[in-house]
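Researcher: I'm preparing a figure for a lab meeting and need a structural model of a single chain. I don't have an experimental structure, so a prediction will have to do for now. The sequence is pasted below. Please return the structure as tokens so I can convert it later.
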Amino acid sequence: MGNESIFWLQMALLVTFNIYSLYAGYRISVKHYREHALKAYIPMALLAVGFMAVNVFILGQPMALRHTH
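Model: Understood. Here is the structure written out token by token.
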């Protein structure tokens, strides 16, 4: 596998599992907060999306010159 295909595989996995975690978080908030589920879910969803954005930024950084002395 080339570097570019590994990059896109990482991005696809990151986005896919982030969507799954957002769905799971919503289901958990509905289970515990019923009518106030959306109010309880929004802070967690924003945090998860923020972490995903940081991960995308970090994985998008060039790594070729990382271990040169």
